[in-house]
Amino acid sequence: MTTKSALSSKLALYLVTDNRFVPEGKSLKDVVESAIRGGVTAVQYREKEASTRKMIEEAGELRNLCRSCEVLFLVNDRVDVALAVEADGVHLGQDDMPLHLARKILGSGAIIGITVHNDLERRAAEQNGADYVSFAPVFATSTKPDHQTPLGISGLEQLVRAATVPSVAIGGINLDNVEEVYKTGVDGVCVVSAIMGATDPELAAQAFLERYNRARAHH
Amino acid sequence: MTTKSALSSKLALYLVTDNRFVPEGKSLKDVVESAIRGGVTAVQYREKEASTRKMIEEAGELRNLCRSCEVLFLVNDRVDVALAVEADGVHLGQDDMPLHLARKILGSGAIIGITVHNDLERRAAEQNGADYVSFAPVFATSTKPDHQTPLGISGLEQLVRAATVPSVAIGGINLDNVEEVYKTGVDGVCVVSAIMGATDPELAAQAFLERYNRARAHH
Ligand code: NI
């Protein structure tokens, strides 16, 4: 179990999985393993289609991988899957289990993050005991086309400044724009396609981490 | 929490919900309420499409309804939803969470049922601590067209005779065939469309219960 004090640094480069980006002939585990070699600090298992049995199998594999590499491992939405594989916690959306119920079920030791789209949702998340918040979406994205209006860099900056818990940013983040995202002071970035869909996920993760270090060195 | 000793009688007429059968202008709760007035003894909330938030809302309503009527209330597949609404337990399929993990998470007091298609699956379920088994499918059904070969009455009879825990039967059961199903000695029947899709779910449930009593009186 990752201690909460170390959470902000554990969120620096946060991979969100999506089986649709796994190339033929490779498994989700292969891609995540490669991304971890490249320096990913946290992994969120996100799966909406598979059976619960299949989710537990896949998440269990990633869980073991992350444990041995000291990478934070969270499950998107599914508190049952998180419990079954003994994940470090869950990441909730606004349509997922209410935060207070997830906390009641998972206990105080679990890490619970939540996606927020504005300052109202940020405050509610913090009041309900979120360990971190995920600001979404920074940019327009094809992964979640039904999303709300992008925050943009200045919108993100305002939310980051107001946050009283560690924060990450998600939505359309790639190698070209990640440095300005890090410069908002956000603790980490969530990446889906720019690593999952990269020809070499290890190199992609390394490149993100270089930009993280550059942005941090600059301040 | 329903005591396990009373389980077999609580399974007599077991409604499995399906939002696709809810008529326009009515809610799932309306239909279930009507079915309970007609004598349904157990309700299983089954929902595969909605968000977790929506599932918890709907299941929470049914949970309260069932509690006040002393009707058993289980959640299909989703251990997280069952925990969130404090259901009596879960009903698992072969593609859902493995039974031993569900037991570990829900504890010994929870009622855990599992769908089985043959004697091998029945024995595994009993060895893993299932509180009841659900034999499926008795007849061919349009609700689950991807199902296995129907057991038929004689196949069901063999499984019921071998079972060491309470059992129910599911799949294509309607008012015309339910009496012969009950006569196999099975503790209960699961009904989806024949009650959910009835013009008057209360009357439909009453008619099922009459056949239950007739079959029991007969032996
Ligand atoms: Ni600067």
UniProtKB/TrEMBL annotation, chains A, B:
Pathway: Cofactor biosynthesis; thiamine diphosphate biosynthesis; thiamine phosphate from 4-amino-2-methyl-5-diphosphomethylpyrimidine and 4-methyl-5-(2-phosphoethyl)-thiazole: step 1/1
Reported cofactor(s): Mg(2+)
Domain Thiamine phosphate synthase/TenI positions: 13-195
Sequence positions that bind Mg(2+): 77, 96
InterPro entries for this protein: Aldolase_TIM, ThiamineP_synth_sf, ThiamineP_synth_TenI, TMP_synthase
Keyword field: Magnesium, Metal-binding, Thiamine biosynthesis, Transferase
Binding site for 2-[(2R,5Z)-2-carboxy-4-methylthiazol-5(2H)-ylidene]ethyl phosphate: 141-143, 172, 192-193
Gene Ontology terms for molecular function: magnesium ion binding; thiamine-phosphate diphosphorylase activity
Catalysed reactions listed for this entry: 2-(2-carboxy-4-methylthiazol-5-yl)ethyl phosphate + 4-amino-2-methyl-5-(diphosphooxymethyl)pyrimidine + 2 H(+) = thiamine phosphate + CO2 + diphosphate; 4-methyl-5-(2-phosphooxyethyl)-thiazole + 4-amino-2-methyl-5-(diphosphooxymethyl)pyrimidine + H(+) = thiamine phosphate + diphosphate; 2-[(2R,5Z)-2-carboxy-4-methylthiazol-5(2H)-ylidene]ethyl phosphate + 4-amino-2-methyl-5-(diphosphooxymethyl)pyrimidine + 2 H(+) = thiamine phosphate + CO2 + diphosphate
A cellular component annotation (GO) from this entry: cytoplasm
NCBIfam families in the record: thiE
Listed name of the protein: Thiamine-phosphate synthase
